[in-house]
């Protein structure tokens, strides 16, 4: 058993401009705890010098450990690998671009020592982001909150501290389309939050364009809610009720000799309308079906090219084949 107390896990995709500063700030903060810690960096298939910088940092400071992915697997899987390899008793997820201030970690540790198993960081304000990102993020958090079965706290990102017990539970959840904040809420245990102001990126650019945000949102929704699937049933009832009323109206109109509702236009509009609804419902089923297919294939979640500095490679729970 290692005696590492804290693991700071930071996924990195093209973060060459941030790594040195990240290491400097983390060291400054973590040395104040006077307890052993490690910094776990994951290179998520970066196309810049991120990997070389990780090697450099590791050579200079043995507390820096890193995992090099064989290609880009995406933020959530990079974080997953970090959680699999991290050796500490408490694990802190943080973005590598310094949008999450490392100083907050001390506050999180304080809460952890009080007995909380999950301490998430709530963004009370976000700096340096476009109104579009702010608006979509706000909408996203509220939508997720309303339609999912687990209570995912509003305005929290992945910046959080998790106890070893929580990590060990989450390690058994090997689903492919991951929404880590939902998964941590699902696990339970004593959870609490601390507030912070989300900063601007230190260097580089966001790698979450609209396309990735939409995929992220659909993973979150399909992973934690059946509501879209039930939509077909609701729509079916609504349309059936409406057409019942429509039929009544037509019968009454005809009895009184009204010539309304003749002609093809009405029929055409109705057929197109129903066709549209059916296609949407099929599409929704397709979304879930595709994800089920991915799970059935049971491929590894990520492929590691090299893991440096860890005492042992983690044992993964056997995935049950369906
Ligand atoms: N990231 C990653 N793989 C990706 C995209 C992003 O590991 O494919 C990392 C990135 O290096 C950063 C974190 O995930 O540490 C958050 O990404 P980003 O800052 O681009 O997102 P934003 O903060 O704009 O939501
Ligand atoms: Mg960022």
Features:
322 residues; alpha/beta; Spore Coat Polysaccharide Biosynthesis Protein SpsA, Chain A; 2 domains; eight-stranded mixed sheet; 10 helices; elongated; binds uridine-5'-diphosphate; binds magnesium ion
Small-molecule components bound:
uridine-5'-diphosphate, magnesium ion
Q: What structural class do helix, strand and pairing data support?
A: alpha/beta
Strand and helix order: EHEHEHEHEHEHHEHHHE
Main sheet characteristics = 8 strands, mixed
Tally of distinct domains: 2
What's the count of strands?
8
What is the CATH H-level superfamily of the largest domain? Spore Coat Polysaccharide Biosynthesis Protein SpsA, Chain A
Report low-confidence residues grouped into runs of 5 or more. Answer: none
On the 0-100 scale, what is the average pLDDT? 87
Cα shape: elongated
Indicate the multimeric state.
single chain
Radius of gyration: 25 Å
For the record, what CATH class of the largest domain applies? Alpha Beta
Strand content: 15-25%
Distance between the termini: 34 Å
- CATH topology of the largest domain, which one? Spore Coat Polysaccharide Biosynthesis Protein SpsA, Chain A
Helix amount: 40-55%
Strand order of the largest sheet: 7-5-6-4-1-2-3-8
Tell me what the CATH architecture of the largest domain is: Alpha-Beta Complex
What is the tally of helical segments? 10
Detailed description of the structure:
The protein is α/β, with parallel strands linked by helices and about 325 residues long. The chain has 2 domains: about 5-225, Spore Coat Polysaccharide Biosynthesis Protein SpsA, Chain A (Alpha-Beta Complex), CATH 3.90.550.10; about 225-295. The chain is about 50% helix and about 15% strand. The chain has 10 helices and 8 strands. It has helices spanning about 20-30, 50-60, 75-85, 105-115, 130-145, 165-170, 180-185, 210-225, 225-255, 265-295, and strands at about 5-10, 35-45, 65-70, 90-95, 120-125, 155-165, 190-200, 305-310. An 8-stranded mixed beta sheet has the order 7-5-6-4-1-2-3-8, with helices on both faces. Helix 2 links the parallel strand 2 and strand 3. Helix 9 (about 225-255) packs antiparallel against helix 10. The protein starts with 5 loop residues before the first strand and ends in a 14-residue tail after the last strand. Magnesium ion binds near residues 95, 97 and 201.
């Amino acid at each position: 058993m290692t005696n590492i107390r804290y693991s700071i896990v930071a996924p990195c995709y093209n973060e060459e401009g941030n790594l040195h500063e990240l290491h400097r700030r983390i060291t400054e903060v973590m040395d104040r705890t006077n307890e052993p810690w490690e910094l776990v960096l994951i290179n998520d298939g970066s196309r810049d010098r991120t990997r070389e910088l990780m090697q450099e940092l590791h050579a200079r400071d043995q507390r820096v450990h890193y995992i090099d992915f064989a290609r880009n697997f995406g933020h959530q899987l990079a974080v997953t690998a970090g959680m699999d390899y991290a050796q500490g008793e408490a694990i802190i997820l943080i973005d590598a671009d310094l949008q999450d201030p490392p100083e907050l970690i001390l506050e999180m540790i304080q809460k952890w020592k009080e007995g909380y198993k999950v301490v998430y960081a709530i963004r009370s304000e976000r700096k340096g982001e476009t109104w579009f990102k702010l608006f979509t993020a706000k909408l996203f958090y509220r939508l997720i909150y309303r339609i999912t079965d687990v209570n995912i706290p509003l305005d929290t990102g992945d910046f959080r501290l998790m106890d070893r017990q929580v990590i060990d539970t989450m390690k058994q959840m090997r689903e492919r389309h991951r929404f880590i904040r939902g998964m941590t809420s699902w696990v339970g245990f004593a959870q609490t939050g601390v507030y912070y102001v989300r900063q601007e990126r230190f260097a580089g650019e966001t790698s979450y364009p609209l396309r990735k945000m939409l995929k992220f949102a659909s993973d979150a929704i399909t992973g934690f809610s059946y509501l879209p699937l039930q939509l077909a049933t609701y729509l079916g009832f609504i349309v059936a009720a409406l057409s019942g009323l429509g039929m009544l109206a037509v019968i009454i109109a005809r009895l009184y000799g009204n010539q309304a509702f003749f002609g093809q236009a009405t029929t055409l509009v109705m057929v197109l309308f129903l066709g549209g609804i059916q296609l949407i419902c099929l599409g929704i089923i397709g979304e879930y079906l595709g994800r089920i297919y991915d799970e059935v294939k049971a491929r590894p979640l990520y492929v590691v090219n090299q893991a440096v500095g860890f005492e042992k490679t983690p044992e993964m729970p056997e995935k049950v084949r369906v």
